[in-house]
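Hi W.,

Here's what went into the run:
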Amino acid sequence: MATTRTVKVRVNGVAYEQTVEARKTLVDFLREDVGLTGTNVGCEHGVCGACTILMNGEAVRSCIMLAAQADGADLMTVEGLAKAGGELHPIQEAFTEKHALQCGYCTPGMLMTCSALLEQNRNPSEQEIRQAISGNLCRCTGYLNIVKAVQHAAQKIGGAP
Ligand code: FES
Ligand code: FES
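Here's what came out:
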C-alpha cells in the first residue's frame, strides 16, 4: 500500500487540504488534485523551468519538489497572476503587447519567474533580466521579446524610468 501524506497549502489564496501519495510531485498535485493545469510539465527534472511557481514568494520548480514538501506553504500559480475580476498582471499584459510568446509552452513558467524578479527588483537591467530567465528555456522566441516585455512591465509597474 502506498505511503500517503496530508498536504495543507494555500494556492492563489485558496486553502486546500488533500491526502496524496508521498511520492507525488508538487506539479502533479497542482494539476491533478487542485485542478490548476496552467503550470506546465516539460523536462520533469529541474532544467527547463516550465513548471515554475511561487512558493512563499520565491520562484521554485514544482517538478522537483514533492507535494508533501509544500505542506504549510503559500503557493501561487500562473492562474493567480490576474486579479479576480480578470484584469491581467502587468507582466501578462507586457508579454501580450511585446509578442513575448509563440507556442506558449514556456510562458507560465516565464511569467512566474519574471513576476518574482519584478517583486524583488522594480527596475532590472537587461543583464539582470537575462540572468533571471536563464533557467527558463524557450525554444521559440530567442528571448529578445521576453526581455523587452519585462522592461515594459517594469515601466507599467512604475519602477523603470
Ligand atoms: S518541468 Fe520542471 S524544470 Fe522542466
Ligand atoms: S514560446 Fe514556445 S517555448 Fe517559449
